[in-house]
Amino acid sequence: MPTELTPITVTDHLWIPLPDGRRLAARMWCPEGEGPFPAILEYLPYRKRDGTAPRDATTHPVFAAHGYACIRVDIAGSGDSDGRFDDEYSEQELADGEAVLDWIAAQGWSTGKVGMIGISWGGFNGLQLAFRRPAPLRAVVSVASTVDRYADDIHYMGGCLLSDNKNWSSQMFAYMTRPLDPDLRPDWREEWLGRIRELPFMGAEWLKHQTRDDFWKHGSICEDWSAITAPVLAITGWADAYVNAPPAIASNLSSAPGKALMGPWEHRYGHISKLQASDFHGEVLRWFDQYLKGEETGAAELPDYRAFVQDHFNPTAKNTPRKGRWVAEAQWPSPHVQEVTWPLAVGGFAQAPETGRVTVSNPATLGQAGGYFCAGMRIDNELPEDQQGDDALSLCFDTDALAAPLELLGRPRVRLRFQVDKPVAQVMARLCDVAPDGVSQRISYRARNLCHDDSHEHATRLVPGEVYEVDFELNECAHRLAAGHRLRLALSTSYWPIVWPAPEVAQITLELEGCALILPERRVQDEIDPVAPPPARDYPVLAATDIRPASGRSNRQVTADGRHVLETFDDYGKAENPDHGLVVGSSVMMRYSIHPDDPSTACFESDWTFEFARGDWQVEVLTENRMTCDRTDFHLWRKVVARENGAVVLTQEWRESVPRGVL
């Protein structure tokens, strides 16, 4: 533990009462002394007792040593908390969160000022609670989150179904079947089995909401930017899936300061990034010291947008360091970034719109180099690789070798005028940096369901032969193409396994006079101080006793019937927690398969295993999940087998089919 940390007191378990009599389980780190102290809340369903304990050990003790009471709370129906879990970001979750904030503010050790911190789920509900304006919530640090639950989460992208809709529901299914701790809950067995029996079938429920309806508008802060009055620091890494929220927050918050920080990280807090560890603690403390303690730390004067501009490197699925430099824009949107329109021409780009037609159609297997949708969730082997193989199957538009560097910062756009030969079709756009040796590095990408209107609230089948137009943004990027490199726009009709394919192979015919790439080109002569995060400081770690080391592997094959299969296995290891002696192990197998000539053969499977032990008490939970489809429906199945001391105590299966609509 770093020598500068002052003594703290850790309360391993405490109960937070809710107005209706339920209790939420919490852990607390607090500076020694009477206080009062400002507080930091992290509010998750991932189990403070074991699930996030290793990560919590690296954050909350550091913040507590700097004068904060840190509270890590499990939402209802998770960990050892009372109640039943109903869905992600539900009204129950958010109402309970407000009650937790009120409870913290009312404690004698509290100044009444609370900040929220979190990555992914905790980053989401920090923003969502700020949207509700509870009085104690004075500042938020939101990492890898979204402002629009339909447009930018793990369910849909551009109106296309992400295969992670099923993958994530499978993971949450496994997570929520874990037992309560007998040391804290004498009623653990009854509650554990009751939870499993009543678990919602989230993958099917999310799949029933295929357009941007009220289900997704709930919890989407973009519905009213002015509602948020707590200052927000929004952080994401370029290898993460959630790259669009920070610049949107910096651009749109009107009633509070909003700052964006985009670094060379995956879906992890910056100090534990496997790509380039950075001082996440310093960023958090500067923000909260300013807005919870009232100290002048410079947080208010930070540039609106700080970004790590990436250079070309040899892309690989393995975790490898990034190349680039930090830049900053005092204001966002910035006067230094201008949209530049590049009309599409056969094979490349033109100075002015040109006439002509080109077609886009490809095997359903295109996308093999795309990597894992949300890098940072697996052990390794999850990042985008050299795109040359996917490029060869796509319709590509290349520049000549650049005479001078080209720097991009923002969201590129693609404008298309097109016809299709099928009533349901998708288009995938990838922007790539192609080196002189041909290595193609993905800069940005985005999927678009061509049946959707611009709002994604309405969708209708396409009429083959009719001419349509679409204009859509790709994901946020910050990239510098060197002189001698080429910029490539690659278009395809599928992107498996990230995007679930349309029911049939479609052909898109582009009318080139209505097609263009619009780039956010950054040109600046006098750079301002980027206030770049330094390398990660020293931080404490959980001194767990490893019983089985973590490991991971990936394998691709083509079966005898022509299906292309990607199978991954991640063993997250097995270890004993030194604080309470709980032994926990987990692993997951995932399998994606599809035939290149028939997108309706798409199949996703995942099997999770969790093991728990302490003394003569042992529990094992196995969950199996599968999603298949045909041209009219999706078919979802899941199963759980729960064992106590080797004996099966519960087996349950769920099946449901959902009409495809225009997916």
Automatic annotation (TrEMBL):
Keyword check for Hydrolase: yes
Record-level Gene Ontology MF annotations: dipeptidyl-peptidase activity
UniProt keyword tRNA-binding present: no
EC number(s) reported in the record: 3.1.1.84
Domain of life (superkingdom): Bacteria
Stretches that traverse the bilayer: none
A Pfam family hit: PepX_C
Keywords attached to this entry: Hydrolase
Domain spans labelled Xaa-Pro dipeptidyl-peptidase C-terminal: 285-541
Cited NCBIfam families: CocE_NonD (TIGR00976)
Protein name (record): Cocaine esterase
Native source species: Tritonibacter horizontis
